[in-house]
Amino acid sequence: MLPEFAASSASSLPLWLVRSGETGPDLPEAISPAAKVWATAQGFAGKSGQLCLLPTPNGEFAGALYGIGPKPGASDRPARERYKLAKAAETLPQGDWHIANAPDGFDLFQGALGWLFAQYRFTRYKKSEAPATQLVCPANVDADKLLALAAGEYLARDLINTPASDMGPDELEQAARDLASRHGAEITVITGQDLIAQNFPMIHAVGRAGAQAPRLIDIRFPGKGPLLTLVGKGVCFDTGGLDIKPPSSMGLMKKDMGGAANVLGLAETLCRLGQTSDMRLRVLIPAVENAIAGNAFRPGDVLTSRKGLTVEINNTDAEGRLVLADALALADEESPALLISMATLTGAARVALGPDLPPFFCDDDGLAAAIHAAGRDHADPVWRLPFWEPYETMIEPGIADLDNAPSGGFAGAITAALFLRRFTETARHYVHFDIYGWQPSAAPGRTKGGTGQGMRAILNALPEILK
Predict the structure, then answer these.
(1) Deepest of 207, 255, 407, 459, by most Cβ within 10 A of its Cβ?
(2) What is the largest CA-CA distance in the chain?
(3) Is 57 exposed, middle or buried (0-12, 13-18, 19+ CB in 10 A)?
């Protein structure tokens, strides 16, 4: 399904946004005295997420009041609920609704975006009722931009939610081809033994035991300007390899291609917004299964990367950085203005920051500040962690240039990021996102399952980054 707004019409019902206050809710003057009495009798206080339906004299709906909490102040903590209107989309009676007022300090754009996100349904395997409510896009709000953002998010969620039985390397390639076809992009795919011939040995080594052949997907979008290259981890299922995961850790491994899903979702949004004409956008996805078979790569193996650096394999479950390394080395050969990797890479990132706040790594303070601010301002929070150079020795084993899984368990997200940075020498800027790509339990605007992370933070920081 694609996101959509209701057509603007006189039949839509008004939704009044109401702030709470010390002396009671700030009820809009436009509603009738009877409606104000009704709201008071219902105990409506304007608290965030509180809903009060307004009846007509004959018992039909006249509209609704929806609480958005107190006016934000400079010292406020981040809101617990990311999308203020998403809960309204999920709790209002069936029908079309329009926002009847615009309280000071309320971001109608983000509110409408949350409403669209709340309408997402994954219906491939089980029928689901269409969203009961639709929103008329608020006046003076860019509907096309909202729909472009939601389309990218929907795409990322759909790809992550699809199990490996229907989202292996073959199907991930097809999703990339579909995107390229929609937007007039060129796509090339290097598959199987051709990876060896064209010097992508670690992508091949990780994926050669899979039921579907490993591959490197390369999409180039038409445009002129600075080169932006997005690299997404496309491990379509991760058993852990010969260092096999326990069942409790393997159950969600269909989401291990979340990095690929997010870069494809971001590319979808950029194309729909027409922003690819002002840059040269390239998307690289190493797509593999990390499986178990007689030809699987082994603990103790030493692999030689595309860059020529040798890597000692101390854990086959640290495979994502291996396939990313070959793709990053290819990307770096063009010296992009900005090189970004996105990957569901380490459990250490989740231990440090949890599932809802993905870390990113960046050497440039100005660029990092722009990404953090964009994430904060566009309901897509991210948090900077350091490329801590004193830990470089932890990824340097005795018999090879690099170690894919340092012993000890300390600073796992940082050592993984340091490993990847070794393959990015000529890019003007390199940023790595260690995302989770999964919503563990439903929240307003975020259904349980696959989710986008970091896409809007990147999108809204690009003008500052690429200027």
Answers:
(1) 207
(2) 82
(3) exposed
Closest CA relative to residue 295, chosen from 237, 211, 400: 211
**Residue whose C-alpha is closest to residue 99's, from 14, 219, 190:** 14
**Contact of 313 with 401, CB cutoff 8 Å:** no
Residue 36 annotated to the active site: no
Contacts of 113 (CB under 8 A, 6+ apart): 83, 146, 149, 150, 379
3-state secondary structure of 227: strand
Q: 71 catalytic, yes or no?
A: no
Separation of alpha carbons 168 and 289, rounded Å: 7
User: Which residues in the chain are classed under CATH 3.40.630.10?
Assistant: 146-466
Nearest CA to 119 out of 160, 88, 143 is that of 88
pLDDT tens for 118-130 read 999 999 999 877 7
What is the DSSP pairing of strand 227-232 with strand 186-191?
A: unpaired
What is the enclosing helix (H) or strand (E) of 63?
A: strand 61-67
Whether 292 contacts 244, CB under 8 Å = yes
Q: Comparing C-alpha atoms, which of 124, 180, 127, 181 is closest to residue 154?
A: 124
Indicate the CATH number of 13-141 among 3.40.220.10, 3.30.930.10, 3.40.1280.10, 3.40.50.150.
3.40.220.10
The token pair at 342 is: 């996105």
User: 3-state DSSP call for residue 99?
Assistant: strand
Other Cβ atoms less than 10 A from the Cβ of 25: the count is 20
d(CA 271, CA 281): 10
pTM above 0.90, yes or no: yes
210-259 per-position pLDDT tens digit:
999 999 999 999 999 999 999 999 999 999 999 999 999 999 999 999 99
Angstrom CA distances, 260 to 62, 249, 341, 444, 447, stand at 46, 20, 9, 25, 20
Q: Single out the catalytic residue among 321, 421, 422, 446.
A: 321
d(CA 96, CA 133): 6
Contacting residues for 17 by C-beta, under 8 A, at least 6 apart: 66, 68, 99, 100, 101, 102, 103, 106
Class of 146-466 per CATH? alpha beta
CA distance 406 to 397: 8
